[in-house]
Amino acid sequence: MNTHRIHRVSKLTGLSKDVIRVWERRFGLLKPTRGANRYRNYSDEDVLLLRYLKEQLDAGGSIGELSKLGREELVVRARALAPRTTAVENMFGRLLQELVSTLNPLDRVTFEKRLNGAVAVVPFDEALNGILLPLQEQVGQLWHDGHVSIAVEHYVTNQIQQKIFAAMNQLPVAEFGATVVVACPPGEEHDIAALAVAYQCRVRGCRVYYLGANVPVAALVKLCGEVKPDLTILSLPIVRSEEKVAELIQALVQDVSPLSDVAVGGHGALAMTELFLASHIEVLADFNDLETTLNRLMRKPLLHR
After folding, report:
1. pLDDT for 148-167, tens place per residue?
2. Which of 114, 120, 119, 121 is nearest to 129 (CA)?
3. pLDDT digits (tens, 9 = 90+) for 42-85
4. CA dihedral in degrees (199, 204, 209, 211; nearest 10)?
């Protein structure tokens, strides 16, 4: 069974993240699990149930009355009425299973043929969210659980990086629009999420300076002083101690915030959300939040239109 993060569930069901969270908290109809990364993971059954509930509400039903039936009865009704997952979703799920099955032991030829073929036949945005990012997450978890080696994890990461860089290189070089700097802070070597953020910003027509992993704050400040970005985004996939996060926040507030709006994302940022928000640093929970931030950025007067 596949698992999905809340931004993916929102896209699959047409429900906002806020509605999903409220229904989960108030009615207890959803059963997300939490991975080692602390994110909620929703099952295919959760998605099926939410789709059914939305259909019933669109037809005039009441969530309060529906919730009284309980999860089991609602799932039975959903399975009887709702179509199975789409062919595209099934394709992605099967492909991810096939790709993972080639990693232990590593079958490079089969892995690259299947990955290259899949990315070539679907729009890249779909490939990014349906194949590449889920694959990175699954392989990271497999490494964490001891099922693949760090060498295999690095190999897969590099394959994914190549695909995102190739897609970025196909985009026109923006000469106008918002200026965005994307980087990982000192000590952070995992930059796939940051690279995906840079790609999404490029798609929106931003002038993007992608700095990659392990960027010293002093170097970040120097570049921001030179290019004067409208927004600086830092990716923190790894959860850090409160002391380390406080040190980073202090440096950002003192040296980067005077030069640029600042936002952070990733597991490490979400784990310390309150600390960042208290310092007026925006926290991006997922790519939907990034989209909202970019929309807001496009509407405001920018430093370098």
Report:
1. 999 999 999 999 999 999 99
2. 119
3. 888 898 899 889 888 888 889 989 999 999 999 888 888 765 44
4. -30
The answer to whether the CB of 167 falls within 8 A of the CB of 196 is no
Cα(223)–Cα(207) distance, rounded to whole angstroms?
A: 14
Ordered DSSP codes for 63-109: HHHHHTT-HHHHHHHHHHHSPPPPHHHHHHHHHHHHHHHTBTTB-HH
Distance CA 198, CA 221 (A): 18
Whether the CB-CB separation of 112 and 159 falls below 8 Å is answered with yes
Parallel, antiparallel, or unpaired: how do β-strands 40-43 and 33-34 relate? antiparallel
- Largest Cα separation within the chain, whole Å, is 60
Interatomic CA distance for residues 143 and 273, integer angstroms: 26
Give the C-alpha distances (Å, rounded to integers) separating 224 from 181, 184, 209, 211, 218. Answer: 8, 14, 10, 11, 10
Q: Where are the beta strands (DSSP E) in the chain?
A: 3-4, 33-34, 40-43, 179-183, 207-212, 231-235, 261-265, 282-284
